[in-house]
Amino acid sequence: MARGKLRIHLGAAPGVGKTYAMLSEAHRRVGRGTDCVVGFVEHHGRPRTEVMLHGLEQVPRRELEYRGGVFPEMDLDAVLARRPEVALVDELAHTNVPGSRNAKRWQDVEELLAAGIDVVSTVNIQHLESLGDVVESITGVRQQETVPDEVVRRADQVELVDMTPEALRRRMAHGNVYQPDKVDAALSNYFRPGNLTALRELALLWVADRVDAYLTQYRSEHRVSRIWGSRERIVVGLTGGPEGRTLIRRGARLAEKGAGGEVLAVYIARSDGLTSASPKELALQRTLVEDLGGTFHHVVGDDIPAALLAFARGVNATQIVLGSSRRKAWQYVFGPGVGATVARESGPDLDVHIVTHGEVAKGRGLPVARGGRLGRSRRAWGWIAGVLGPPLLAALLSAVDLGLANDMLLFLALTVAAALLGGLLPALASAAVGSLLLNYFYTPPLHRWTIADPKNIVAIVIFVAVGVAVASVVDLAARRTHQAARLRAESEILSFLAGNVLRGETGLEELLERVRETFGMESAALLERASDVEPWTCAGRVGRGRPVERPDEADVDMPVGDHMALALTGRVLPAEDRRVLAAFAAQAAVVLDRRRLQEEADRARTLAEGNRIRTALLAAVSHDLRTPLAGIKAAVTSLRSEDVEWSEEDRAELLEGIEEGADRLDHLVGNLLDMSRLQTGTVTPLIREIDLDEVVPMALGGVPEGSACLDVPETLPMVAVDPGLLERAVANLVENAVKYSPSGAPVLVAASALADRVEVRVVDRGPGVPDEAKDRIFEPFQRHGDAPRGAGVGLGLAVARGFAEAMGGTLNAEDTPGGGLTMVLSLRAAASRPEPYPTAEPERQAS
């Protein structure tokens, strides 16, 4: 069944016309031929609203008594039974009178929607749960009736019913909202112009946010990359430097100038983790932007201008705020800078503001390779080759004259070796020392720091350039190798994580423990809250670190949606680690949702099983138990009748019928009690060694004579069973086989030994059971095929299997060769028992 659609008329305050608009919509739908009824509409004595009810079908209300009064409520069952296409339900946040099915009216609406009924409802902005504190600070009144924001956000349509404060106050003064005796008090208290203006602003902003969410979804679905300047969005680019706080405040001032302006601060980290940002400074800037009503974002990208522009266009920003460069003049040889590049490539749809600050031109360190890329020992050998290698080579060449060209090639080879070992800096040192030694010892004039031949100058320059080039290539290769190794490790972690989560092999605590171990943290916790104003709660936590109650108290926090965050304590993670952490956080949310869905499914399965058993039990009580009772009552009534003179044969027949009915009742009730004991786990078998020929013949006493034959050899080993449970199990099997065996074909009960087991076979020549139904016949309240209702309640085989398993045995169904069904009861032989049986005799559960 398709879920119904919800349409909500949202207003800023009572009296703006929500109910009137809802009834107008109902008349339009009825005019189009839609089946529309009034589930509950309160007109509050307003004549114009009451008139709108005329011509609409109204479902009679349900009246409930509470504290000496009678209160009308919507009759949910009557609306569900009526099943209209559309139901009008006024006052979505209303609290139902105690004794109703649901505590809140919005819960009644959820049931209507689940039944496929469209609902049109109304609600005021002050009743939204997340705005309770804001409304109280404006009006001084705490709203007791609230509705969760998510209920309203899930609505298919939200229509704003707007009215200016002046117009609403005029309506009240004319008596169109409240009774005349309440107008003056309302106008001077809750309905003051300032209150109404503030509430109206809340309603407009809430609807605007919802429209913005629709717009974002539409742009994403239709892949719209061009910016639509529907509202001012200011993106503030942060570098992690101290100037960030100045840029955030400037962006906030720009946002205040435009209606509904929004500030988004973004920090872009390189994917290789090279950054000069201070984690402490970034944390302070994040707190500042959130205090000013903005949001903080962390983006990874090697090309900072391209990443910044992509982020701005992705959020439909209209302006970008950047700080003037902190680089010194000589550092511009490396490029024009982020600000100039962003301004050049922003296009006509993005305005770029370059803001001056106190750190302009004070310099910023260029990112250098971290020492961990090549290893300490390798860098040490590189410095040895770059600094000590050239003097040693010069000492060796002083004894041999190979010519300047060969000498330069040897020094160049030493520089290349230093670059291969230690990277850029050892290579530069080797090139500098080597060029000085070449100039002093091997370039005419010798032993002087001058060069006579210009060709030798070119040779030395080429020598230095080749050394630097090789060193740069080695350094770049080391970085790429490090990135490749890291990406391979990340892909292995994510692949393992995704596989475990998809297979359901990882619980929430196991996943959090893996997060803690992967990143070397002290503790990991998954925090969540119901709404923005609700406190944070811990859904799961591992580790011994300090407990955190809010994400901002942790050393690292990774948001997951709007109301969930993964919080870690121990150290501050570098930017490159946050990518994998984001995947862990998303998977943690998936695991938590899956666990809750599994719990709900288990509860639903338990309820469904209970409902199925209760339904079958009621059917058994209504027919299978009433039938023998009716027969007994009829026989007793006949015997007590004074109008008829019964013969001895008739009296004996009636008494026999009473006895058969009582035996049948005893059997049915016994099976019901046995099944209840099995399901509650209260069957405690008293196991002892016994011969089958002492128990099995007693199980045949309940079937007609000649309907079963017995074949139990005396040479069989003893079995370890509870005699009472075994007798009841075999009796149920025999009775079931007799019911389905044709006349003249007795049931065979045979026993045989097989290894360390003893099997009891109950063989009939009835119609048999197909393979796909052999397991189903052992379920409670199951009758195979077209078995008549009088054949029992379907518990005999279920009880028999339950008793067999309680004694450590098994019960299965097999086909009888030549047609029919064979029940195989396998029991443990006494000699094979694994441990001594209890000597204390517990209370007998069934016998």
From TrEMBL:
The chain crosses the membrane at residues 380-402, 409-437, 457-478. Its EC number is 2.7.13.3. SMART domains: HATPase_c (SM00387), HisKA (SM00388). Keywords: ATP-binding, Kinase, Membrane, Nucleotide-binding, Phosphoprotein, Transferase, Transmembrane, Transmembrane helix, Two-component regulatory system. It is a multi-pass membrane protein. It comes from the Bacteria. It is found in: Cell membrane; Membrane. SUPFAM superfamilies: Adenine nucleotide alpha hydrolases-like, ATPase domain of HSP90 chaperone/DNA topoisomerase II/histidine kinase, Homodimeric domain of signal transducing histidine kinase. It holds the Pfam family Usp. It catalyses: ATP + protein L-histidine = ADP + protein N-phospho-L-histidine. InterPro entries: HATPase_C_sf, HATPase_dom, His_kinase_dom, HisK_dim/P_dom, HisK_dim/P_sf, Histidine_kinase_KdpD, KdpD_sf, KdpD_TM. One of its GO terms (molecular function) is ATP binding. Residues 620-831 form the Histidine kinase domain. This is histidine kinase. It comes from Streptomyces tibetensis.
